Amino acid sequence: MGRFLILGKEERQKYLFQMLCGKGQTVTYCDSWLDGYYDAILLPVAQTAAYLKKAEGQLQAGEYVFGCNFPPEIVERKRKQGVFFIDYMKEEGAAYINAVATAEGAIAQALLSGKEVLFGKQMLVMGYGRCGQILSHRLKAMEGEVTVCEKDEEKLAMAYANGLKVLGAQEKPSAEFWAGFLYIFNTAPKLVLTAERLARVRRDAVIIDIASKPGGVDYAYCERNNLHATLCGGLPAKYAPKSAAELLLSVIESNLKEVMSYEAG
């Protein structure tokens, strides 16, 4: 039986607490560090860095720390002291499963923001990585008219082979091209929806940005020109917290098999 410390009051962490308790583990769940030795410290996915900076001095040799996007300087220091770090999204298969929840959350956010069905609408997806691929296919399955913009030629060919319209990132489409999309989704982790491009977007367009902060949209331009753009971090925790927690639990169990040996009750 293991000892776990869960930090952070997001919904995903609450479900993780319930699941671990249901498996007979000893779990402390709070928003700030409680002294003691733990087999594993479970940090909130979207706020790993902030919580780790506060808890760094409390970590002890032999403890496992789970989270995402750890500050490398802290990892380097603490690993030398015998602390282990597991990035949820770097575990085999986890990133793709998380991308499913992110894509479905992006669609939910678009429906809430746009007030219109996706069926038959012109939609643009910026980027064709893990999230971009799953999102594009979900939108196409809903019979949207989906175009993918991607700089990588191989990924662009893959999108085309999957029946999607495509645009190379270096191509210079007409002003009418940008004005045709009611829904625009960005997955690229850098500025791609620049002021120049946004100036050509229709005024009632809904822009859903699921890239990591600061996102890939010129938000200052959007604010000045009353464009509806939303940076949507933590979509799995917002729209599918139970499923997201199940994913985290699978990663925890695969890394702590001996610690978590128990008899199901």
**Helix/sheet category:** alpha/beta
Q: What's the overall average pLDDT, rounded?
A: 94
Largest sheet: 6 strands, parallel
Strand-and-helix sequence, N→C? EHEEHEHEHEHEHEHEHEHEHH
Helix tally?
11
Determine Rg (CA atoms, Å): 21 Å
Instruction: Estimate the helix proportion, in percent.
Output: 25-40%
User: Order of strands side by side in the largest beta sheet?
Assistant: 8-7-6-9-10-11
- Cα(first) to Cα(last) distance is 13 Å
In words, what does this structure look like?
It is a single chain. This protein is an alpha/beta fold and 265 residues long. The chain contains 11 helices and 11 strands. The strands form 2 sheets. It has a 6-stranded parallel sheet. α4 crosses α5. It is elongated, with a radius of gyration of 21 Å. The chain starts with a strand and ends in a 10-residue tail after the last helix.
Record keyword descriptors for this entry.
265 residues, alpha/beta, 6-stranded parallel sheet, 5-stranded parallel sheet, elongated
Outline:
This protein is an alpha/beta fold and 265 residues long. The chain contains eleven helices and eleven strands. It has a six-stranded parallel sheet.
Secondary structure topology:
Blueprint: E1 3-7, H1 11-22, E2 26-30, E3 40-42, H2 48-55, E4 64-67, H3 72-79, E5 84-87, H4 94-114, E6 122-126, H5 130-141, E7 145-150, H6 153-161, E8 165-168, H7 175-179, E9 183-186, H8 195-198, E10 206-209, H9 219-224, E11 228-231, H10 235-239, H11 241-255
Parallel strand pairs: 1-2, 1-3, 3-4, 4-5, 6-7, 6-9, 7-8, 9-10, 10-11
Helix pairs in contact: 1-11, 4-5, 4-11
